[in-house]
Design goal:
- It contains three helices and two strands.
- Helix content is 49%, strand content 6%.
- It starts with a strand and ends with a helix.
- By secondary structure, it is mostly helical.
- It has one domain: Orthogonal Bundle (Arc Repressor Mutant, subunit A), CATH 1.10.10.10.
Amino acid sequence: MARQQALMIDIATGDVRPISKQIVDAVRLKVATGELTPGWQLPSVRGLAQQLTINPNTVAKAYAELT
């Protein structure tokens, strides 16, 4: 059974990258540094969108790119 982990990332409104790209980059960095390990489940689209106070479609776009 997969364990769920809160995804603690910061979104910078002044960043030139789109928010979805910031999410993708943050997840990739956490995987590369070992902070996200095999067996951990990312938050749901709605859950992460609510946590970051952004549109769920933005999170869905980022998750689709990561897939």
